[in-house]
Fold this sequence. Notes:
The complex is a heterodimer. Chain A is an alpha+beta fold. Chain A is built from 2 helices and 6 strands.
Amino acid sequence: MAKYLLLKHYRGGPAPIVDFAPMDQWTPDEVNAHVQFMQDFTTRLKEMGEFVDTQGLAPAGAFVRYDGEGRPPVTDGPFAETKDLIAGWYIIDVESWDRAVELAGELSAAPGPCGKPIYEWLEVRPFLGGAPTFTE
Amino acid sequence: MNEQLLRDLVPAVIGVLVRRGADFGSAEDAVQDALVEALRVWPDHPPQDPKGWLVTVAWRKFLDATRAETSRRRREALVDSEPMPGPVDAVDDTLQLYFLCAHPSLTPASSVALTLRAVGGLTTRQIAQAYLVPEATMAQRISRAKRTVSGVRLNQPGSLATVLRVLYLVFNEGYSGDVDLAAEAIRLTRQLAEKTSDEEVAGLLALMLLHHARRSARTRPSAAWCPSPSRTGACGTPA
């Protein structure tokens, strides 16, 4: 088994397939359907024994970095563009890279406006130092 | 109570129950119940034959549970058709349990989890910690694995190759959490080696012991990794 981070890029990532409106413009039903989709996804992961963690992230926040000895950290924010926004993540523990991709594909189909899939880009990243996936 | 003795006995007792016709999950539950009973009784009345004692009590627990769960008709048919508990035969049931837990119908990860649970006697929490996943996730993985093999009867030899693969996977995972998986893999492989003369088993055990002997030489006292040229044979520890 190997752990993967599925990073939800929301409206970012490579060129969007569907240019959907930001979530604050969705109807409550559309938001609920989206959240329900992810809860169902989480439940399925748990039942399969593949779930490790998931969190959503608030849109607030900033970039922060060290600025030299004795100086306060430099901050750059808040994020101007929703392109920069990471909406949340899943951590999964799965048998193979192919399985991670398959799950990311499912998650990417979460519904947005009018209940249509938003084709969200998910960044799939193996954990460094994780046990290599077993192959014959 | 001797925990090491119990951990050696448990897989054998589960094996006996499965060979007598109990499905895997029920057998494991029954053995757990028997262990609870042993905790209560043994301190005052230590058994002469701990394995025989556990088999008898576990089988009774299994029958009780089966009676409670199935309809009267089914229960009667089952009790009627099953052989009466007799003396424990000398066939090595632990070996059968290795085969079951490494059954080809399971994925490698499921086999690993089930082997550590059923043969190794680790708790689900310990296995979850070792593999850095939530306990509920590991519990699901184990129960799915149990369901997968629940229909498998231990009436034919299993594949030793799949068992060795699973043991090596456990060893390779090294150690984390509060369980030393490398040591656990060696313990299980050593146990397996005592039950078979297969040279591949001896080879795997030798490989593990060789790696394990050099384990303390891989890091300095500060826990920094040692570059390999500075490792010397003197750093090794006997396994």
